[in-house]
Amino acid sequence: MSNTLPQDAINTLEQLQGKFPGNRRAHAKGEFYEAVFTPNGKAIPYTTAPHLQSEPVTATVRFSNSPPDPTAADFLSPAKGMSIHFHQPDGSTSHQVCTTIPMFITKDPKTFIEMLKILGSHKTGVHSIDLGLGIVQLLTTFPEHKKTLLALKEQLKQPPISYAALHYYPIHAFYLVNAEGKRQAIKYEWRPLKEKKSSSFLSSINLSTNYLSEDLEKRLDKGTVSFELFIRLAEDTDATDDPTDTWPTDRQKILIGQLTINKKIFPTESLLFDPTNVGKGIELPDDPILHFRHESYAVSYDRRNKENKKTP
Ligand code: HEM
Asked: Which one GO biological process term can you cite for this protein (predicted)?
């Protein structure tokens, strides 16, 4: 029997907030930037991945809002995205697709679709969902996911000050594989280089619809925006197949490089950021959500490319 779950997920996303031809079925609103990733050599004992050695590589970065509506106001969406193509010397790319919430709401694709349907039943208008009420019902239906749902609710409270001030997480575990073939499970974390310890949130009053991209443009007019990349090393007891599990906070953390964003760009071809496209020196865990993302993103990519309006 063929697997229709990815189609089901995309149909549900389309029903949830309307269909926006030519756009991504999630994280539709976003802009692209040219960047350089400079590894510091600290990942070499763990991986042969070319972009994690000691030579800088160029990167294409996309910051995004999570809704499928490409016109949604920046201050309304709960999670922000940062997606990266690392350009390898051989012409291939290694991808990372991150959000600002460190864990996912379920480890099971079917449950994810059920959750989407519950959120969809709390529409307050054609293109607007009452996420607050939706989350209350999710908490009642899936009490085992309380921690993540409360983290999501927390993010809904106040809009962030800037894309440049947020932490980003690819969420899933990955295996780094070194020159001897030894595998080490890790999770990545991105941290803003110049992190302000003071309040990092704003009130939505007086914020423009596109204030996050406008803010980034202003910062890039004056200079660059940088993030540090860390890996956290798993211990034997840490699950590699469960994106709801963030692992204990005392895991060894290593700074492995820095991403510097230089300027906004306008790609002319349609780009796909696929979290399973990791390239040489990195392997995938047996994580059902991660593999389901690969299939679902392909369905979304196919649909948006077949539609009239093409977006990068
Ligand atoms: C069942 C799980 C998930 C489904 C079905 C799903 C679905 C989608 C879809 C359909 C897209 C648009 C793909 C395209 O047309 O290129 C997308 C994009 C995105 N998703 Fe997910 N997603 C899931 C989980 C996650 C998780 C766990 C994260 C957090 C790391 C995440 C972060 C993102 C980001 C950042 C984008 C924007 C990618 C870009 O910049 O092009 N998603 N998602």
From this structure: response to hydrogen peroxide
Determine the Cα–Cα distance for residues 127 and 237; give it in Å rounded to an integer.
43
User: Which atom of ligand 1 is least distant from the CA of 62?
Assistant: 40
Residue 311 lies in a domain: no
* Structural domain containing residue 134: 5-169+189-198+208-306
Nearest CA to ligand 1 atom 22: 293
| Among candidate residues 4, 1, 2, the one with its CA nearest the CA of residue 299 | 4
Q: Is 27 a catalytic residue?
A: yes
Confirm whether 41 is domain-assigned. yes
Task: Answer yes or no: is 24 within a domain.
Answer: yes
User: What is the number of the ligand 1 atom nearest to the C-alpha of 112?
Assistant: 1
Name the strand (E) or helix (H) holding 306. Answer: helix 288-306
Q: In a structure prediction context, what are the per-residue pLDDT tens digits for the chain, which is 312 residues long? A: 578 999 999 999 998 878 899 999 999 999 999 999 999 999 999 999 999 999 999 999 999 998 889 998 998 877 899 999 999 999 999 999 999 989 998 999 999 999 888 877 766 554 445 556 677 788 888 887 787 778 777 766 778 889 999 999 999 999 999 999 999 999 999 999 987 665 556 676 678 999 999 999 999 999 999 999 999 999 999 999 999 999 999 999 999 999 999 999 999 999 999 999 999 999 999 999 999 999 999 999 999 999 966 678
Q: What is the tally of structural domains in the chain?
A: 1
298's enclosing H/E stretch is: helix 288-306
Confidence (pTM)? 0.93
The domain that holds 214 is classified in CATH as 2.40.180.10
* Interatomic CA distance for residues 149 and 58, integer angstroms: 36
